[in-house]
Amino acid sequence: MKQSIGNTYLIYFVSIFFVVAITFVVGILNYMKAFRINSGIANALENFEGYNNLSKVEIDRYLNGYGYRIDATGNANCPVKNSLQAISAYNDSTGQNHRYCIYEYNKNSDGYFKYGIITYIYIDLPVINESLAIPIYSETEKIYEFSV
Prior knowledge:
Helix content is 41%, strand content 21%. It has two helices and four strands; from the N terminus they run ααββββ. The protein has helices at 2-47, 53-66; strands at 101-105, 112-125, 130-139, 143-144. Strands 1, 2, 3 and 4 form a four-stranded antiparallel sheet that branches. Helix 1 packs antiparallel against helix 2 (53-66).
């Protein structure tokens, strides 16, 4: 009888360990996906030298191809970042609203500027019927603005 009680505690301990380990791995995978999406948006901004119509189309194509969540509410709720308002939150041309925020930082004295990007990790909690959106922030490399 004594051994059966001891085995019960061992099973509880192993079960809790597996739940914590699986939660940790899922969190890492979600963070990696959000950071990869940030990198894709940054590549589009760098390739097309800023946030313009060409980069909007490329960002939309990338987000659709990667399966990033479409937000049907139409409300981006982009926070103010370093005293800047977001210049983009939704793609208006296609009607598919991917929730992301882009911030343009001013040019420095050398003629370089950069962008800040926020995408979100979505966690659905089915028991309480809620969804959490955790922001992930990254910045592009410096982009040189050529004079026209």
